[in-house]
Amino acid sequence: MSTSPYHHGDLRRTLVETGIGRLRAAGVDGLTLRGVARLAGVSATAPYRHFADKEALLAAIAAEGFERLRVAVEAADASSRGMEALRAQGVAYVRFAREEPALFRLMFGAAVARGSLSAGAAFGVLRARITSLVPTDRAEIAALSAWSMVHGLASLLIDGRIDPPDPEALVRAVLAQFALGGAQLR
Questions:
Q1: Please, what is the Cα angle at 117 between 112 and 120, to 5 degrees?
Q2: Which residues bind DNA (predicted)?
């Protein structure tokens, strides 16, 4: 339980951040509104001012995760140019998944309703980079292909299905194959 009770500020934000911490510690099944309220130092009914139910809190946590992912891939993209920027995005994506596996699983799992606008923002960064690398008429399928590759790698890594000595080098190598394998880069 929190050692100092919550008194003022942005309760919604506090509940989302506390929820992320609980998600890390106990997973989706171990996260409850009552438990998050207790950890945040507020009454058991306080979260209901911001969230109708656990699913609404999970959706807000997932939206925060997608925002953090967007920031990470955007920063990676800005650090380089061309194909190297695409590789940097892939590395940032996998790094995020490895650092926040419970949040990553929530973001892409069945516990959160589909159609989140926040989910599209991170994909938009990838799509913009791909559009600079491939002819416009191939950009959408190339972006989906690159995302599928990197997302698959991230999932395999956090689920312990593969354990390469250097995951970031693996991401770069896979994306190099993407460049050679039919993306028809400019």
A1: 100
A2: 32-51
Among the listed residues 7, 28, 170, the one whose alpha carbon sits nearest the alpha carbon of residue 101: 28
Alpha carbons within 13 A on the beta-carbon side of 157: 25
Contact (Cβ atoms closer than 8 angstroms) between residue 33 and residue 47: yes
| C-alpha Rg value of the chain to the nearest Å | 19
Q: Among residues 93, 156, 167, which one has the least CA distance to residue 123?
A: 93
CA atoms within 13 A on the CB side of 72: 18
State pTM to two decimals.
0.89
Domains observed in the chain: 11-49 (1.10.10), 64-180 (1.10.357.10)
Per-residue pLDDT tens digits for 28-65: 999 999 999 999 999 999 999 999 999 999 999 999 99
Three-state DSSP at 23 gives helix
Per-residue H/E/C for 76-90: HHHCCCHHHHHHHHH
Tokens at 84, concatenated:
């190297």
Query: Position of tokens 């946590």?
Result: 61
